[in-house]
Amino acid sequence: MKSQATRVSLLHHGLNVLSFYGLSGVTLGRLAEAARLSKSGLFAHFRSKEQLELALLDEAARLAHTHVVEPAMEAPAGLPRLRVLVERWLGWASRAGLPGGCPVAAALFELDDREGEVRDHVAALEQEWRALLRSLTASAAALGHLRPETDVDQFVWDLCGIYLSHHASARFLRDPAAETRARHAFDALLRRAGAALPS
Fold first, then answer.
1. Which distant-in-sequence residues (6+ apart) come within 8 Å of 38 by Cβ?
2. How much is the CA Rg of the chain, to the nearest whole Å?
């Protein structure tokens, strides 16, 4: 029980470091210091920096599922569910208590030219997320909330572009209008797909 509690604490501290500094800023020494643990104590849970990075990315995905996916799944199927998902997705990291931005979104840029297991894992997480977006978009089209001929792959591509632009604008440019602009862009995307929006 103590060992599990220590691991949970390490993941909590590590996710804060990852969110703020990115993967390059996650070191065993920095995490041990943040968790007030010796390096030898840390090695009992994570034998390498790569193992630590993989565990932290999975923890980020778990946290996103809790704060974004689970609330969305409580909404009615189709466009209502997709809208809730996108509303919860934009800026989710700060609402989940992370001091920086979305760790996975940051990793997409940080690892774009790197090869290895960590990059492969981030790619798998991103593909899993996009598969969820495709499923919700296809459901909205099947229910008549979007045009039946909606190009689901293009819709998801555009939607991910909105999210990444929001991430860069909010985190790097510190644009206070980032979320408003992202929501306007999402509404415009929905209109192009034939959604009836409230006036």
1. 32
2. 19
Cα 129 to Cα 49: distance, rounded to the nearest angstrom:
25
pLDDT tens digits for range 101-119: 899 999 999 998 999 999 9
CB count in 10 Å sphere of residue 37:
18
| pTM for this predicted structure | 0.91
Half-sphere exposure (Cβ direction) of 52: Cα atoms closer than 13 Å:
29
pLDDT tens across 117-143, in order? 999 999 999 999 999 999 999 999 999
**CB-CB contact of 106 with 172 (8 Å):** no
pLDDT per residue over 134-180, tens digit each?
A: 999 999 999 999 999 999 999 999 999 999 999 999 999 999 999 99
- Residue 30 CA: distances (Å) to CA of 7, 25, 27, 79, 99: 15, 8, 5, 43, 16
DSSP, residue by residue, 21-70? H-GGG--HHHHHHHTT--HHHHHTT-SSHHHHHHHHHHHHHHHHIIIIIH
Residues 55/11, Cβ–Cβ less than 8 Å: yes
d(CA 196, CA 100): 35
- How buried is 114 (Cβ within 10 angstroms: 0-12 exposed, 13-18 middle, 19+ buried)? exposed
